Amino acid sequence: MVRKKLLAIAAAVTAVILSATQLSAAGIQLDVKKHVLANGMRILVLENHSAPVFSTVVRFNVGAVDERPGITGTSHLLEHMRFKGSKVIGTTNYDAEVPILAQIDSVAHLMKAEQVRLQSPLNSQDSTLYKQYRQQIADLQAQEKKYIIKDEIWRIYLQNGAAGFNASTGNDGTQYIVSLPSNRLELWAFMESDRLQNLVLREFYSERDVVMEERRMSYENSPRGALGEAAAAATYWSTPYNWPVVGWMSDLQNVQREDVEQYYKEHYSVSNAVAVIVGDVKADEVFALCEKYFGPIAAEPLPRPVVTRDARQRGERRIDVEFDASPMGSILWHTPQIGHPDIPALDVASSILSDGRTSRFFKNIRQTRIGQASAGVDAFNRYPGTFNVDIQPFGDHTLQEVEDSVYAEIERMKTTKVSQWEIDKVINQGDAALVRSLDNNMGLAYRLANSETLTGNWRYFVDYQDALKKVTPDDVMRVCNTYLTRENRTVVSLVKPYAQETAQTPGKAN
Hints:
Elements: H1 2-21, E1 23-24, E2 27-28, E3 33-36, E4 42-47, E5 53-60, H2 74-81, H3 94-119, H4 128-144, H5 152-159, E6 163-169, E7 174-181, H6 185-197, H7 204-220, H8 223-235, H9 249-254, H10 257-267, E8 273-279, H11 283-293, E9 317-322, E10 328-334, H12 343-354, H13 360-366, E11 371-377, E12 386-393, H14 399-415, H15 420-437, H16 441-455, H17 460-469, H18 473-483, E13 489-495, H19 498-504
Parallel strand pairs: 4-8, 9-13
Antiparallel strand pairs: 1-2, 3-4, 5-7, 5-8, 6-7, 10-12, 10-13, 11-12
Helix pairs in contact: 3-4, 6-11, 12-17, 12-18, 13-14, 14-18, 15-17
């Protein structure tokens, strides 16, 4: 009896999934409706009436790659600032805030000039004046707090049944997410349109300090963070993937509120945004509400695209990062950007190497207790990315042993074709993951937003899975020989500090 009930429940769940996504033998058919406002904002809706909720992703086509030296980390800093409220939300009297914000900006100019002076070796390192300016800003922000309603945007959403209210910033985009009951659709449209057109960068300098502390924890005090930052800086010498999403510390210390406000005006335009709504909504109602709330916002010219590319690498690069931690490393090879026909074969190669207990790295590196290695490829990068392998030795084994084992597996793929069974395994795993994601409103909304923003085609993530199915053993061998070469790779190793290493090795020469 219990088994019959379970089977009935499973059948009902499957029916809901099939109904919501219109799966067919010919492939996945998603009934996504698209509407473009006159100002250029794109709205995507996928109705799923299985539960009285909906999930949304508002994605802006702006990330760390759109920055420049001097304002690195601005995209991520703006993500923080967009939770501070607007001229309407988060304040009891915005008009009273305005003169205080102007005073803060005036003192910040003086503080920046002093900061620049202190960074020059030709000047005294007396920071008394800098400290005075910081205190003045802190005092002014304390005055402003009289008018600030802390976290009001969070409170409004939570009081209306929101879940998963959050945001994230990457190299290629920034997204803001929330799930709400179906009868709160208009609230979402009002809230998101308000903070898009009426954003106030209040508490900017205290939040900038928060981001600097985040940078210290994630990069400067983290061995893996330090390794990743060094790997990007060594691999990309021209492309803006060179710097971390959180930015360089010197830029965070010097960036002004007005710099960030100008960046916001240039990149956070309705014409540079995609809104995706998945769940228990009606497309016509969504489009009407978006016309009402987002439609009146003036369009801005799209930002100029990044045109800088890294030149062809002409030899292996190796760097060491000294850190008092267990050894680990990263190996990176340059690869093309999203949409290139070689990306699917590189993706299949990375999965054959490291996905699951039947992968080659697992059987020949982890099970032999040499260490562990995991591969991946940047398949959804706006600009050329990497095929990368992270490595770590076990016990008394060395980083070099794991690195050599990785190269041995890659060389084997260059000279001997992978089996069709290995490719089929990758395809089956990908199909299963894709189908599972279709039963999650937020996961599906994110995939749609990501595809639409990066390629202009919301179906790209589905088409990409179809492209993986066309990969052959010959394709895998070809791309391994083309891209995974010695002259195209960068190797970054986390090693013990030299002074500590020599102290632990008696008789080692200086």
